[in-house]
Amino acid sequence: MDATEYVLTGGRKCVIFQFIDDHSRLAIASHVAWGETSEAAITVVKKGIAAYGVPQRLLSDNGAALNPSRRGVLGQLVAYLRSLGVEPITGKPYKPTTQGKNERFHQTLFRYLDKQPLADTLEQLQLQVDGFDLVYNTQRPHQALPGRVTPRAAWDATSRTDPPRPVAPRAPLPGPSEEIRVKLVGNTGAVEFRGIRFGIGRTFAEQRVCVMDSGKTVMIFDLRGTLIIEHPWPKPGTKYVSNGRRRGPVKTL
Fold first, then answer.
1. Fewer CB within 10 A of the end CB, N or C, for the chain?
2. At 110, phi and psi to the nearest 5?
3. Residues of 199-222 as b/e, b for ≥16 C-beta within 10 angstroms?
4. Is the Cβ–Cβ distance between 31 and 8 less than 8 Å?
5. Residue 136 to residue 156: CA distance in whole angstroms
6. What is the pLDDT of residues 173-209, one digit of tens each?
7. Residue 171 has pLDDT above 60, yes or no
8. Confidence class of residue 7 from pLDDT cuts 50, 70 and 90?
9. Using CA atoms, how far apart are residues 18 and 29, in angstroms rounded to an integer?
10. Burial class (CB in 10 A: 0-12, 13-18, 19+), 233
11. Which domains are seen in the chain, by residue range?
């Protein structure tokens, strides 16, 4: 499962969650939301389970909304999956090739959406994505499948395993608390955390990031788990911490 950003009319950004079966490449479920949140991730998983049953495992990236376990935090999606007996797994940090099938799936979706009228609302975009899933599953031969069959044909031809059994709960990882927050970066490229504005750069303006208090430092990640910057905690009374980069053009000799 993965999520990708999309732009509606007027430049409004949203996120499309896509949940596919690794073996048959079947589009299990899709969901359109305003942001990459745990609630939206759980919604698309519930859609998929209602349609095709509970999976044995679920692969996602290391984003805060999907699986932040590598940062010692129990995400809401991970907790939900474990309650069903599903094993949540992630790719290695900084190894986007692990999600290669998902990335190709996103590209195929975008080629389809490019041929549709640009959606004005989430509801319109959801209808277009649902239409894509139907075409992708039942009408489009898949070049990666034997005999170039459709994903639906490959799914129907595959025997089913029994659904997993819920397991006894493990010792929990820490959940969302004062130590970790998902924040929106301001238009100046700074994010506020505990009354202090931490500069990370204008390239991240209007994006959501994960801010973590690691004790001696403040660590800021993008929602896929990549560390953007790390600041030492400033002295009491400090209201702004720069990212340390010079403003203006870089001089060359």
1. C
2. -65, -40
3. bbeeebeebbbbbbbeeeebbbbb
4. no
5. 15
6. 444 444 677 788 999 999 999 899 999 988 888 888 8
7. no
8. very high
9. 6
10. middle
11. 2-156 (3.30.420.10), 180-241 (2.30.30)
- Model confidence pLDDT, tens digit, residues 143-159: 777 777 898 888 888 88
Show Cβ contacts of residue 208 under 8 Å, excluding neighbours closer than 6 positions: 35, 36, 182, 183, 184, 185, 223
pTM: 0.64
User: The dihedral of CA 140, 141, 143, 146: what is its sign?
Assistant: positive
Return the axis-axis angle of helices 38-52 and 76-84, rounded to nearest 10°.
Answer: 30
pLDDT at 97 over 80: no
For residues 20 and 26, is the Cβ–Cβ distance under 8 A? yes
In which band, very low, low, confident or very high, does the pLDDT at 95 lie, cut at 50, 70 and 90?
low
Residue 43: predicted pLDDT = 92
Single-letter amino acid code for the residue at 230: E
Q: What is the mean pLDDT of residues 213-235?
A: 80
Q: How far is CA 165 from the centre of its chain?
A: 26
